[in-house]
Amino acid sequence: MTPDGGPPRILTSRVDLAGSYTLKAFLETGGYEGLRKALSMKPDEVAQEVDEASLLGRGGAGFPAGRKWSMLRPADTTYLVVNGDESEPCTFKDHLLLETDPHQLVEGVAIAAYAIGVEQAFIFIRGEMALGLERVTQAVNEAYEYGALGRGILGSGFNLDVVVHPGAGAYICGEETGLLESLEGKRGFPRIKPPYFPAAIGLYGEPTVVNNVETLSNMSWIVRNGGAAFAALGKGRSTGTRLFALSGRVKRPGVYEVEMAKTTFRDLIYGQEFGGGISGGKELKAFIPGGASAPWFGADQVDMPLDQDEVGAAGTMLGSGSVVVMDETVCTVKVAWRITRFFWRESCGQCTPCREGGGWLEKILWRIENGAGREEDVDMLADICDNISPGLHWPPEQTTICPLGPSIPSPIASVMRMFEDEIRLHVKEGACPLA
User: Fold this and answer.
1) CATH topology of domain 23-228
2) Which residues of 108-119 are buried (b: 16+ CB within 10 A; e: fewer)?
3) Using CA atoms, how far apart are residues 273 and 319, in angstroms rounded to an integer?
4) What is the torsional sign of CA 399, 209, 7, 9?
5) Per-residue pLDDT tens for 288-318?
6) By the 8 A CB rule, do 233 and 241 touch?
7) What is the reported pTM?
8) Which residue of 99, 162, 185, 362 has the fewest C-beta atoms within 10 A of its own C-beta?
9) Cα separation of 221 and 4, whole Å?
10) pLDDT per residue over 218-272, tens digit each?
Protein backbone atom coordinates (compact mmCIF):
# COMPACT_ATOMS: atom_id res chain seq x y z
CA MET A 1 0.00 0.00 0.00
CA THR A 2 1.06 3.60 -0.54
CA PRO A 3 1.64 5.90 2.49
CA ASP A 4 -1.87 7.37 2.06
CA GLY A 5 -3.46 3.92 2.24
CA GLY A 6 -4.15 3.66 -1.48
CA PRO A 7 -3.24 0.75 -3.75
CA PRO A 8 0.46 0.20 -4.47
CA ARG A 9 2.04 1.69 -7.57
CA ILE A 10 3.05 -1.59 -9.11
CA LEU A 11 3.94 -0.25 -12.54
CA THR A 12 4.66 3.45 -12.10
CA SER A 13 6.68 3.62 -8.87
CA ARG A 14 9.75 4.89 -10.76
CA VAL A 15 8.29 7.09 -13.48
CA ASP A 16 8.85 10.32 -11.54
CA LEU A 17 12.46 9.56 -10.62
CA ALA A 18 15.30 11.32 -12.41
CA GLY A 19 17.01 8.85 -14.72
CA SER A 20 14.32 6.24 -14.05
CA TYR A 21 15.29 4.42 -17.25
CA THR A 22 18.90 3.77 -16.16
CA LEU A 23 20.28 0.63 -14.55
CA LYS A 24 21.57 2.67 -11.61
CA ALA A 25 18.12 4.02 -10.72
CA PHE A 26 16.58 0.60 -11.23
CA LEU A 27 18.99 -1.18 -8.89
CA GLU A 28 18.61 1.53 -6.23
CA THR A 29 14.87 0.84 -6.13
CA GLY A 30 14.93 -2.95 -5.88
CA GLY A 31 15.50 -3.77 -9.51
CA TYR A 32 16.17 -7.41 -10.46
CA GLU A 33 15.31 -8.62 -6.95
CA GLY A 34 12.20 -10.22 -8.39
CA LEU A 35 14.32 -12.07 -10.94
CA ARG A 36 16.71 -13.24 -8.20
CA LYS A 37 13.79 -14.60 -6.21
CA ALA A 38 12.29 -16.27 -9.28
CA LEU A 39 15.58 -18.02 -10.03
CA SER A 40 15.56 -19.43 -6.49
CA MET A 41 12.18 -21.03 -7.22
CA LYS A 42 11.21 -23.82 -9.60
CA PRO A 43 9.83 -22.57 -12.95
CA ASP A 44 6.41 -24.09 -12.31
CA GLU A 45 6.29 -22.32 -8.93
CA VAL A 46 6.80 -18.98 -10.66
CA ALA A 47 4.09 -19.82 -13.18
CA GLN A 48 1.80 -20.80 -10.30
CA GLU A 49 2.22 -17.37 -8.68
CA VAL A 50 1.24 -15.67 -11.94
CA ASP A 51 -1.74 -17.99 -12.30
CA GLU A 52 -2.79 -17.25 -8.70
CA ALA A 53 -2.51 -13.52 -9.41
CA SER A 54 -5.25 -13.94 -12.04
CA LEU A 55 -3.41 -11.41 -14.17
CA LEU A 56 -5.43 -10.64 -17.28
CA GLY A 57 -3.45 -9.66 -20.37
CA ARG A 58 -3.21 -5.90 -20.70
CA GLY A 59 -2.93 -5.77 -24.48
CA GLY A 60 -6.63 -5.71 -25.30
CA ALA A 61 -8.07 -9.22 -25.30
CA GLY A 62 -7.84 -9.66 -21.53
CA PHE A 63 -6.85 -13.35 -21.69
CA PRO A 64 -5.35 -14.67 -18.41
CA ALA A 65 -1.56 -14.63 -18.66
CA GLY A 66 -1.07 -17.79 -16.62
CA ARG A 67 -3.48 -19.75 -18.79
CA LYS A 68 -1.76 -18.52 -21.96
CA TRP A 69 1.55 -19.79 -20.60
CA SER A 70 0.04 -23.19 -19.81
CA MET A 71 -1.08 -23.57 -23.43
CA LEU A 72 2.51 -23.47 -24.76
CA ARG A 73 3.06 -26.69 -26.70
CA PRO A 74 6.13 -28.62 -25.45
CA ALA A 75 8.91 -28.50 -28.02
CA ASP A 76 12.69 -28.37 -28.30
CA THR A 77 12.50 -24.70 -29.39
CA THR A 78 10.05 -22.21 -27.92
CA TYR A 79 9.92 -18.42 -27.96
CA LEU A 80 8.64 -15.50 -25.91
CA VAL A 81 7.59 -12.39 -27.87
CA VAL A 82 6.78 -9.03 -26.29
CA ASN A 83 4.10 -7.03 -28.08
CA GLY A 84 5.23 -3.41 -27.80
CA ASP A 85 3.51 -2.22 -30.96
CA GLU A 86 0.72 -0.32 -29.13
CA SER A 87 -0.89 1.14 -32.23
CA GLU A 88 -4.48 1.58 -30.99
CA PRO A 89 -5.36 5.28 -31.36
CA CYS A 90 -5.14 7.30 -28.12
CA THR A 91 -3.35 4.45 -26.33
CA PHE A 92 0.01 5.38 -24.86
CA LYS A 93 0.46 3.52 -21.57
CA ASP A 94 3.00 0.98 -22.91
CA HIS A 95 4.77 3.93 -24.50
CA LEU A 96 5.24 5.37 -20.99
CA LEU A 97 6.64 2.12 -19.60
CA LEU A 98 9.09 1.69 -22.48
CA GLU A 99 10.46 5.20 -22.03
CA THR A 100 10.51 5.55 -18.25
CA ASP A 101 11.10 2.04 -16.86
CA PRO A 102 12.53 -0.28 -19.53
CA HIS A 103 14.45 -2.41 -17.02
CA GLN A 104 11.14 -3.32 -15.35
CA LEU A 105 10.08 -4.81 -18.68
CA VAL A 106 13.42 -6.59 -19.20
CA GLU A 107 13.16 -8.12 -15.73
CA GLY A 108 9.59 -9.21 -16.46
CA VAL A 109 10.72 -10.82 -19.73
CA ALA A 110 13.45 -12.77 -17.90
CA ILE A 111 11.01 -13.96 -15.21
CA ALA A 112 8.41 -15.05 -17.76
CA ALA A 113 11.03 -16.80 -19.92
CA TYR A 114 12.32 -18.70 -16.88
CA ALA A 115 8.79 -19.74 -15.89
CA ILE A 116 7.94 -21.18 -19.31
CA GLY A 117 11.39 -22.55 -20.14
CA VAL A 118 12.24 -20.20 -23.02
CA GLU A 119 15.82 -19.22 -23.86
CA GLN A 120 15.11 -16.78 -26.71
CA ALA A 121 12.87 -13.73 -26.44
CA PHE A 122 12.03 -10.87 -28.79
CA ILE A 123 10.81 -7.40 -27.85
CA PHE A 124 8.84 -5.97 -30.79
CA ILE A 125 8.47 -2.18 -30.50
CA ARG A 126 6.57 0.14 -32.81
CA GLY A 127 9.15 1.90 -34.98
CA GLU A 128 7.75 5.40 -34.33
CA MET A 129 8.47 5.04 -30.60
CA ALA A 130 12.04 6.18 -31.16
CA LEU A 131 12.86 7.13 -27.56
CA GLY A 132 11.27 3.99 -26.14
CA LEU A 133 13.15 1.86 -28.65
CA GLU A 134 16.43 3.56 -27.74
CA ARG A 135 15.90 3.12 -24.00
CA VAL A 136 14.80 -0.51 -24.18
CA THR A 137 17.83 -1.28 -26.34
CA GLN A 138 20.03 0.45 -23.78
CA ALA A 139 18.36 -1.46 -20.95
CA VAL A 140 18.89 -4.80 -22.69
CA ASN A 141 22.59 -3.99 -23.21
CA GLU A 142 22.94 -2.95 -19.57
CA ALA A 143 21.16 -6.13 -18.45
CA TYR A 144 23.67 -8.22 -20.38
CA GLU A 145 26.55 -6.36 -18.72
CA TYR A 146 24.96 -6.74 -15.28
CA GLY A 147 24.36 -10.46 -15.80
CA ALA A 148 20.56 -10.35 -15.87
CA LEU A 149 20.59 -11.59 -19.47
CA GLY A 150 22.86 -13.95 -21.35
CA ARG A 151 24.51 -17.13 -20.09
CA GLY A 152 24.07 -18.26 -16.49
CA ILE A 153 21.82 -15.35 -15.48
CA LEU A 154 22.70 -13.97 -12.02
CA GLY A 155 24.77 -17.04 -11.22
CA SER A 156 22.02 -19.53 -12.08
CA GLY A 157 21.96 -22.19 -14.75
CA PHE A 158 19.38 -20.30 -16.78
CA ASN A 159 20.25 -18.76 -20.15
CA LEU A 160 18.28 -16.11 -22.02
CA ASP A 161 18.99 -14.02 -25.09
CA VAL A 162 16.78 -11.03 -25.96
CA VAL A 163 16.49 -9.30 -29.33
CA VAL A 164 14.92 -5.84 -29.63
CA HIS A 165 13.13 -5.53 -32.96
CA PRO A 166 11.66 -2.26 -34.34
CA GLY A 167 8.40 -2.59 -36.24
CA ALA A 168 7.61 -0.72 -39.45
CA GLY A 169 4.60 1.16 -38.12
CA ALA A 170 1.54 -0.87 -39.13
CA TYR A 171 -1.55 -0.96 -36.90
CA ILE A 172 -2.21 -4.55 -37.86
CA CYS A 173 1.09 -5.63 -36.26
CA GLY A 174 -0.57 -5.10 -32.91
CA GLU A 175 -2.48 -8.32 -33.69
CA GLU A 176 -0.23 -11.07 -32.40
CA THR A 177 -0.03 -13.21 -35.54
CA GLY A 178 0.45 -10.15 -37.74
CA LEU A 179 3.28 -9.20 -35.39
CA LEU A 180 4.87 -12.65 -35.79
CA GLU A 181 4.70 -12.35 -39.58
CA SER A 182 6.44 -8.97 -39.38
CA LEU A 183 9.04 -10.36 -36.99
CA GLU A 184 9.81 -13.04 -39.57
CA GLY A 185 10.44 -10.32 -42.17
CA LYS A 186 7.12 -10.65 -43.99
CA ARG A 187 4.18 -8.29 -44.46
CA GLY A 188 2.08 -8.00 -41.31
CA PHE A 189 -0.77 -10.25 -42.45
CA PRO A 190 -2.65 -11.89 -39.56
CA ARG A 191 -2.74 -15.68 -39.74
CA ILE A 192 -5.84 -17.85 -39.81
CA LYS A 193 -6.60 -19.40 -36.41
CA PRO A 194 -6.72 -22.35 -36.06
CA PRO A 195 -4.21 -23.81 -36.73
CA TYR A 196 -1.96 -20.82 -36.15
CA PHE A 197 -2.53 -20.20 -32.46
CA PRO A 198 0.93 -18.94 -31.45
CA ALA A 199 1.13 -21.27 -28.44
CA ALA A 200 1.02 -24.17 -30.89
CA ILE A 201 2.46 -22.76 -34.14
CA GLY A 202 4.03 -19.36 -33.66
CA LEU A 203 7.28 -17.64 -34.56
CA TYR A 204 9.23 -19.59 -37.19
CA GLY A 205 6.63 -22.34 -36.81
CA GLU A 206 7.58 -23.01 -33.19
CA PRO A 207 5.41 -22.68 -30.03
CA THR A 208 5.39 -19.05 -28.92
CA VAL A 209 3.96 -16.99 -26.06
CA VAL A 210 3.06 -13.42 -26.99
CA ASN A 211 2.61 -11.04 -24.05
CA ASN A 212 1.99 -7.31 -23.85
CA VAL A 213 4.48 -4.82 -22.35
CA GLU A 214 2.27 -3.93 -19.38
CA THR A 215 1.47 -7.58 -18.70
CA LEU A 216 5.14 -8.51 -18.34
CA SER A 217 5.96 -5.36 -16.37
CA ASN A 218 3.87 -6.79 -13.51
CA MET A 219 6.02 -9.91 -13.15
CA SER A 220 8.61 -8.68 -10.68
CA TRP A 221 6.01 -7.32 -8.23
CA ILE A 222 4.00 -10.55 -8.40
CA VAL A 223 7.05 -12.71 -7.71
CA ARG A 224 8.30 -10.48 -4.86
CA ASN A 225 4.91 -10.06 -3.17
CA GLY A 226 3.09 -13.21 -4.23
CA GLY A 227 0.23 -13.86 -6.58
CA ALA A 228 -2.26 -13.72 -3.72
CA ALA A 229 -1.24 -10.13 -2.89
CA PHE A 230 -1.89 -9.12 -6.51
CA ALA A 231 -5.23 -10.96 -6.57
CA ALA A 232 -6.26 -9.17 -3.35
CA LEU A 233 -6.33 -5.92 -5.32
CA GLY A 234 -9.42 -5.34 -7.41
CA LYS A 235 -12.35 -7.75 -7.49
CA GLY A 236 -13.30 -11.01 -9.17
CA ARG A 237 -11.31 -11.58 -12.36
CA SER A 238 -10.28 -7.93 -12.48
CA THR A 239 -7.29 -8.09 -10.18
CA GLY A 240 -4.32 -5.86 -9.51
CA THR A 241 -3.80 -2.36 -10.80
CA ARG A 242 -3.92 -1.26 -14.42
CA LEU A 243 -2.72 1.68 -16.48
CA PHE A 244 -5.31 3.80 -18.28
CA ALA A 245 -4.43 6.35 -20.94
CA LEU A 246 -6.91 9.19 -20.44
CA SER A 247 -7.32 11.68 -23.29
CA GLY A 248 -9.85 13.98 -24.92
CA ARG A 249 -11.74 16.80 -23.22
CA VAL A 250 -10.29 16.47 -19.71
CA LYS A 251 -8.22 18.93 -17.71
CA ARG A 252 -5.37 16.52 -17.01
CA PRO A 253 -4.90 13.96 -19.78
CA GLY A 254 -2.25 11.37 -19.04
CA VAL A 255 -1.49 7.81 -17.95
CA TYR A 256 -2.89 6.80 -14.56
CA GLU A 257 -2.41 3.62 -12.54
CA VAL A 258 -5.61 2.65 -10.73
CA GLU A 259 -6.91 -0.34 -8.83
CA MET A 260 -9.14 -2.49 -11.00
CA ALA A 261 -12.86 -2.72 -10.15
CA LYS A 262 -12.49 -0.40 -7.13
CA THR A 263 -12.19 2.65 -9.42
CA THR A 264 -14.99 3.98 -11.63
CA PHE A 265 -14.88 5.94 -14.87
CA ARG A 266 -16.16 8.91 -12.86
CA ASP A 267 -13.15 8.63 -10.54
CA LEU A 268 -10.79 8.49 -13.51
CA ILE A 269 -12.37 11.39 -15.41
CA TYR A 270 -13.28 13.71 -12.52
CA GLY A 271 -10.89 12.74 -9.70
CA GLN A 272 -8.44 15.53 -8.85
CA GLU A 273 -5.58 13.02 -8.74
CA PHE A 274 -6.59 11.84 -12.22
CA GLY A 275 -8.37 13.69 -15.04
CA GLY A 276 -9.61 16.58 -12.89
CA GLY A 277 -12.92 16.94 -14.74
CA ILE A 278 -14.08 18.12 -18.16
CA SER A 279 -12.04 20.96 -19.60
CA GLY A 280 -13.74 24.33 -19.94
CA GLY A 281 -16.48 23.42 -17.49
CA LYS A 282 -18.43 21.59 -20.19
CA GLU A 283 -20.74 18.60 -19.71
CA LEU A 284 -19.75 15.01 -20.42
CA LYS A 285 -21.41 13.74 -23.60
CA ALA A 286 -19.88 10.30 -24.15
CA PHE A 287 -16.63 8.42 -23.71
CA ILE A 288 -14.80 5.51 -25.31
CA PRO A 289 -13.90 3.04 -22.54
CA GLY A 290 -11.24 0.83 -24.09
CA GLY A 291 -9.58 2.09 -27.24
CA ALA A 292 -10.94 3.34 -30.55
CA SER A 293 -12.39 -0.05 -31.50
CA ALA A 294 -14.56 -0.27 -28.36
CA PRO A 295 -18.29 0.58 -28.36
CA TRP A 296 -18.97 3.86 -26.53
CA PHE A 297 -20.56 4.66 -23.19
CA GLY A 298 -22.87 7.59 -22.54
CA ALA A 299 -22.70 10.01 -19.63
CA ASP A 300 -25.24 7.87 -17.75
CA GLN A 301 -22.67 5.06 -17.49
CA VAL A 302 -19.86 7.11 -15.96
CA ASP A 303 -20.27 5.33 -12.60
CA MET A 304 -19.40 1.96 -14.17
CA PRO A 305 -16.40 0.39 -12.38
CA LEU A 306 -13.22 -0.36 -14.31
CA ASP A 307 -14.07 -4.04 -14.18
CA GLN A 308 -13.40 -6.38 -17.10
CA ASP A 309 -16.59 -8.40 -16.64
CA GLU A 310 -18.99 -5.56 -15.80
CA VAL A 311 -17.84 -3.48 -18.75
CA GLY A 312 -18.09 -6.56 -20.96
CA ALA A 313 -21.61 -7.29 -19.74
CA ALA A 314 -22.54 -3.71 -20.67
CA GLY A 315 -21.59 -4.43 -24.28
CA THR A 316 -18.10 -3.04 -24.65
CA MET A 317 -14.55 -3.60 -23.31
CA LEU A 318 -11.65 -2.12 -21.38
CA GLY A 319 -9.53 -3.22 -24.33
CA SER A 320 -6.24 -1.38 -24.67
CA GLY A 321 -6.78 0.77 -21.56
CA SER A 322 -7.53 3.97 -23.49
CA VAL A 323 -10.36 6.21 -22.28
CA VAL A 324 -11.32 9.04 -24.65
CA VAL A 325 -13.64 11.73 -23.26
CA MET A 326 -16.06 13.76 -25.42
CA ASP A 327 -17.88 16.85 -24.16
CA GLU A 328 -21.10 18.48 -25.38
CA THR A 329 -19.30 20.43 -28.12
CA VAL A 330 -17.87 17.34 -29.84
CA CYS A 331 -19.38 16.21 -33.15
CA THR A 332 -19.82 12.46 -32.75
CA VAL A 333 -20.23 11.98 -36.50
CA LYS A 334 -16.79 13.49 -37.08
CA VAL A 335 -15.29 11.29 -34.36
CA ALA A 336 -16.80 8.18 -35.95
CA TRP A 337 -15.54 9.27 -39.39
CA ARG A 338 -11.97 9.81 -38.17
CA ILE A 339 -11.84 6.45 -36.38
CA THR A 340 -13.34 4.67 -39.39
CA ARG A 341 -10.86 6.37 -41.73
CA PHE A 342 -7.98 5.21 -39.55
CA PHE A 343 -9.12 1.59 -39.48
CA TRP A 344 -9.82 1.52 -43.21
CA ARG A 345 -6.39 2.92 -44.04
CA GLU A 346 -4.71 0.44 -41.66
CA SER A 347 -6.49 -2.64 -43.04
CA CYS A 348 -3.98 -5.19 -44.33
CA GLY A 349 -6.37 -5.90 -47.21
CA GLN A 350 -6.68 -9.67 -46.85
CA CYS A 351 -10.41 -9.73 -46.08
CA THR A 352 -13.17 -8.18 -48.22
CA PRO A 353 -15.43 -6.94 -45.36
CA CYS A 354 -12.54 -4.97 -43.88
CA ARG A 355 -10.85 -3.84 -47.11
CA GLU A 356 -13.99 -2.83 -49.01
CA GLY A 357 -16.59 -2.28 -46.29
CA GLY A 358 -14.33 0.00 -44.30
CA GLY A 359 -13.83 2.20 -47.34
CA TRP A 360 -17.55 2.38 -48.08
CA LEU A 361 -18.31 3.42 -44.49
CA GLU A 362 -15.59 6.07 -44.55
CA LYS A 363 -16.93 7.61 -47.76
CA ILE A 364 -20.52 7.75 -46.48
CA LEU A 365 -19.47 9.34 -43.17
CA TRP A 366 -17.29 11.88 -45.00
CA ARG A 367 -20.24 12.77 -47.20
CA ILE A 368 -22.56 13.25 -44.22
CA GLU A 369 -20.04 15.27 -42.21
CA ASN A 370 -19.27 17.55 -45.14
CA GLY A 371 -22.85 18.47 -46.01
CA ALA A 372 -23.55 16.11 -48.92
CA GLY A 373 -25.39 13.45 -46.94
CA ARG A 374 -28.62 11.87 -48.16
CA GLU A 375 -31.52 10.42 -46.17
CA GLU A 376 -30.78 6.93 -47.47
CA ASP A 377 -27.19 7.19 -46.18
CA VAL A 378 -28.32 6.53 -42.62
CA ASP A 379 -29.93 3.20 -43.55
CA MET A 380 -26.98 2.38 -45.80
CA LEU A 381 -24.56 2.86 -42.89
CA ALA A 382 -26.61 0.49 -40.75
CA ASP A 383 -26.79 -2.10 -43.52
CA ILE A 384 -23.05 -2.11 -44.27
CA CYS A 385 -22.19 -2.22 -40.58
CA ASP A 386 -24.50 -5.22 -40.13
CA ASN A 387 -22.84 -7.00 -43.05
CA ILE A 388 -19.36 -6.49 -41.59
CA SER A 389 -20.44 -7.30 -38.03
CA PRO A 390 -23.75 -9.22 -38.08
CA GLY A 391 -26.09 -8.15 -35.30
CA LEU A 392 -23.81 -5.28 -34.27
CA HIS A 393 -23.33 -6.78 -30.82
CA TRP A 394 -20.17 -7.02 -28.73
CA PRO A 395 -18.02 -9.03 -28.93
CA PRO A 396 -18.64 -9.03 -32.67
CA GLU A 397 -19.15 -11.99 -34.99
CA GLN A 398 -15.84 -12.95 -36.58
CA THR A 399 -16.26 -12.33 -40.32
CA THR A 400 -12.58 -11.70 -41.07
CA ILE A 401 -9.24 -13.33 -40.23
CA CYS A 402 -8.53 -10.89 -37.38
CA PRO A 403 -10.79 -8.67 -35.24
CA LEU A 404 -10.02 -5.45 -37.15
CA GLY A 405 -12.84 -5.80 -39.68
CA PRO A 406 -15.70 -6.47 -37.23
CA SER A 407 -14.40 -3.67 -35.01
CA ILE A 408 -14.79 -0.99 -37.69
CA PRO A 409 -18.57 -0.58 -37.16
CA SER A 410 -18.18 0.01 -33.39
CA PRO A 411 -17.97 3.83 -33.43
CA ILE A 412 -20.66 4.09 -36.12
CA ALA A 413 -23.03 1.76 -34.28
CA SER A 414 -22.38 3.77 -31.10
CA VAL A 415 -23.32 7.05 -32.78
CA MET A 416 -26.41 5.52 -34.36
CA ARG A 417 -27.49 4.06 -31.02
CA MET A 418 -26.82 7.15 -28.92
CA PHE A 419 -26.90 10.14 -31.30
CA GLU A 420 -28.88 9.18 -34.39
CA ASP A 421 -30.54 12.59 -34.28
CA GLU A 422 -27.12 14.18 -34.87
CA ILE A 423 -26.61 12.13 -38.01
CA ARG A 424 -30.03 13.06 -39.36
CA LEU A 425 -29.47 16.74 -38.47
CA HIS A 426 -26.25 16.68 -40.52
CA VAL A 427 -28.29 15.42 -43.47
CA LYS A 428 -31.20 17.80 -42.95
CA GLU A 429 -29.12 20.95 -42.52
CA GLY A 430 -26.48 20.01 -45.08
CA ALA A 431 -23.68 20.71 -42.62
CA CYS A 432 -22.29 19.77 -39.23
CA PRO A 433 -24.51 21.56 -36.65
CA LEU A 434 -21.58 21.73 -34.21
CA ALA A 435 -19.04 23.13 -36.67
Assistant:
1) Rossmann fold (3.40.50)
2) bbbbbbbbbebe
3) 23
4) negative
5) 999 999 999 999 999 999 999 999 999 999 9
6) yes
7) 0.95
8) 185
9) 20
10) 999 999 999 999 999 999 999 999 999 999 999 999 999 999 999 999 999 999 9
3-state secondary structure the chain: CCCCCCCCCCCCCCCCCCCCCCHHHHHHCCCCHHHHHHHCCCHHHHHHHHHHHCCECCCCCCCEHHHHHHCCCCCCCCEEEEEECCCCCCCCHHHHHHHHCHHHHHHHHHHHHHHHCCCEEEEEECCCCHHHHHHHHHHHHHHHHHCCCECCHHHCCCCEEEEEEECCCCHHHHCHHHHHHHHCCCCCCCCCCCCCCCCCCCHHHCCEEEEEHHHHHCHHHHHHHCHHHHHCCEECCEECEEEEEEEECECCCEEEEEECCCCEHHHHHHCCCCCCCEHHHCCEEEEECCCCCCCCEEHHHCCCECCHHHHHHCCCCCCCCEEEEEECCCCHHHHHHHHHHHHHHHCCCCCHHHHHHHHHHHHHHHHHHCCCCCHHHHHHHHHHHHHHCHHHCCCCCCCCCCCHHHHCHHHHHHHHHHCHHHHHHHHHHCCCCCC
- CATH of the domain spanning 332-429: 1.20.1440.230
Residue 78: C-alpha distances to residues 58, 73, 117, 205 (Å): 22, 8, 8, 10
Specify the fold of 242-327.
Answer: Ubiquitin-like (UB roll) (3.10.20)
Interior CA angle at 207 toward 203 and 210, to 5°? 65
d(CA 273, CA 252): 9
349-365 confidence digits (pLDDT tens): 999 999 999 999 999 99
Which of 342, 341, 360 is CA-nearest to residue 352?
A: 360
- Sheet containing strand 161-166, edge to edge, reads 161-166, 120-125, 79-84, 208-212
CA distance 288 to 324: 5
Distance between CA atoms of residues 248 and 243, nearest Å = 17
Each domain of the chain, given as residue ranges in start order, spans 23-228, 242-327, 332-429
